[in-house]
Amino acid sequence: MLCILATSLLAFAAHADTALTGASREVRAGDTPQMVLDAFRRGELQSFDPKLLQRVPTRGLGTWVVLQPQPPLVDEERVFTVYPPPLSAVTLFDAQGKTATQSLDDFTPPAHGNGRLAYRIGPEVPASSPILIRFDPSPVRSMPVSFQLQSWHEYLREDARWLVFASACFAVMLAMSLMALCLAMMLRDSTFAWYAGYVLCYALIQGLQTGYLFHPLEATWLAGSAALVSSSAMALSLAFAAMFMARFCELPRFAPLLHTPTLALAVGMPLVVLLRSCQIPVLQQTAQVLVGPLLIIGTLLLLLAAVVAAARGARPAWFFLAGWTPLLALTALSSSQAGGMLADVIWLNDASLAAGAFEAVVLSLGLADRALSMRRDRDIVQELADNDALTNVLNRRAWAESVSRLLGSGTTQPVALLFLDLDHFKLLNDRKGHAAGDRALIAVADALRHELRPHDLLGRYGGEEFVAMLYGVEQAQAMQVATRLCRRVHRMDIPVNDDGLVLSVSIGIAMRVPEDNVESLVERADHAMYRAKLAGRNRARLDEKLETPPRRSWPRAVDIDRSR
Fold first, then answer.
1. DSSP string for 253-280
2. Which residue ranges traverse the bilayer (predicted)?
């Protein structure tokens, strides 16, 4: 994606067009197009280079601009363009006195340039004829513009390239925003929502400044309000960026002194928007004066906060700086360009659009990294909550919940439950101490874990009691497993006292029946475990309902005769 954007920018910078010379002067009362052209031929207008960005004054009555095509000249259909598209209306005059007026938010012409104002000049107009245009007055400060004269086919190719480039940039920003909104709802983390708001506001700003919202999207509802919407979107984008950065870069932890000013900025910018939108002229003018300085101060504040947070170990701050710094640099260059510098850097406006897409991708990677960290932290917390701190097997709550989910899943596979109790464990604690008892529990839990299958659920039920649920195991297999566990624990030779008594385990076995739940299964296995204790310990016993009753032999015939 970034390679495509860079290639598109180079293509825009290296276009071929007809050479022009230009001159301009302010509109005077009583001016006619012929008077201006005569003054141009007498050299009375101020000359400039049309290829370079020029600030065209729109104060007073406006400004006349005359462009003279230079050889080699070809009589063919051509397109005259003004880039970037200004907010003020621009009128083209032809030799017959006909006019064609266009503006950024004008929807009347049948054919309109994308990302610029475009005027078709038919082949009947001599190639050597000067082009006369007039910039109408506008209350909004004008941005520098450049002028081109291209053949119709060259214009179509460049227009198509720009459409692909701009559409790709906006598609990236919108896709990243939608992804962030989905994550905000799924993870219930407002950080992603603030990011989406910031990127959407920036996309709105670029859509207005480049004219993409007007052509090709035909957003007629924005006609006449582009300046107000653009300034409001700038203020809101900074507010969203402040809220996003405060949470994303963890300012309360890594830059606490800058956290409060950042939040103040996030609250103050929407207030400026409200003042700018109200119907009171004094408040509107005050807000208009405040917007520019607040944007500069706020941008520098966010940059400083990100640098401090990154220096103090905030990993997300590096993502923020990687995405924010190029955009900040381009914004500074654009401001310099508006002041008359960098007049030959025509592609800077499109570079800002590409930088917005780049920033959206970088910050999305940062958010993905944040989401993975949150998931990792959640898994760690879940593991700590579910596992027994001493033996690292499931604790009683987590084990019971896992078994309950399995029993409620409707499975028809056989399920065996083993209830294990260590023999002579109290004596071990009394004689060897609780530290020896803890070591014995850890060793036994580790041995049980290695004897059971990975999907068997092993948990510590309490004290020296363990439980194990065996899935898909018949009664005979369950008895074999329990016997193997008894032998494994006994062979560990964990001494209980100095008389040669070693630790062993007694196990009770219960098989699931359809009406069983966790409590009933545990209760039957627990009773079977007590029967194993009474039978001498270090053995396994089935639930009484599962025990095979002793077979009764039939009396012999001799015995029957004798009884008679």
1. HH-HHHHHHHHHHHHHHHHHHHHHHSS-
2. 162-185, 192-215, 221-245, 257-275, 287-310, 317-334, 346-368
pLDDT score at 111: 62
Chain segment 15-70, per-residue pLDDT in tens: 457 788 999 999 998 888 889 999 999 988 999 888 888 888 888 888 999 999 98
Q: How do residues 130-174 score in pLDDT, each as one tens digit? A: 999 999 888 777 788 889 998 889 999 999 999 999 999 999 999
* Alpha-carbon distances of 511 from 29, 90, 489, 520, 523, rounded to whole Å: 103, 88, 23, 11, 12
> Which tokens in the block code for residue 405?
């989910």
Q: What is the CATH number of the domain that holds 241?
A: 1.20.1070
97 assigned to some structural domain: yes
Tens digits of residue pLDDT in 351-377: 888 999 998 999 888 888 877 887 787
CB 17, CB 149: distance < 8 Å: yes
Burial (Cβ within 10 Å: 0-12, 13-18, ≥19) of residue 439: middle
* Domain shared by 425 and 520, yes or no: yes
| Domain shared by 21 and 127, yes or no | yes
Q: Is residue 563 part of a domain?
A: no
Of 158, 183, 203, the domain-final residue: 158
What b/e string do you get for 551-562 counting C-beta neighbours within 10 Å, with b at 16 or more? eeeeeeeeeeee
Say if 44 falls within a structural domain: yes
pLDDT for position 1: 46
Structural domain including 318 reads: 160-383
Split into its structural domains, the chain has a count of 3
Grouping H, G, I as helix, E, B as strand and the rest as coil, residue 70 is coil
Handedness of CA 215, 217, 221, 226 (dihedral sign): negative
Are 367 and 423 contained in the same domain? no
> Chain-centre distance of CA 67, in angstroms?
47
Q: Compute the distance between CA of residue 17 and CA of residue 168 in angstroms, rounded to an integer.
A: 25
| CA separation for the pair 101, 112 (Å, rounded) | 11
Residues 479 and 374 in one domain: no
* Virtual torsion, Cα 34, 40, 46, 51, nearest 10 deg: 100
The whole-chain average pLDDT of the chain stands at 85
For 79-102, write each residue's pLDDT tens digit: 999 988 888 888 998 766 677 888
Residues 6+ apart with CB under 8 A from 42: none
555 within a domain of the structure (yes/no): no
Same domain, 334 and 431: no
Claim to verify: residue 130 and residue 164 sit in the same structural domain: no
Q: Do residues 125 and 175 both lie within one domain?
A: no
Do 379 and 467 reside in the same domain of the chain?
no
Query: What are the residues whose beta carbons fall under 8 Å from the beta carbon of 2, sequence distance 6 or more?
Result: 358, 361
Residue 2 CB-density burial (10 A; 0-12 exposed, 13-18 middle, 19+ buried): exposed
Distances (CA, A) of 366 to 172, 191, 203, 321, 442: 15, 11, 19, 11, 40
Neighbouring CB atoms inside 10 A of 20's CB total 20
Tokens linked to 143:
């941005």
Indicate which CATH number applies to the domain containing 20. 2.60.40.2380
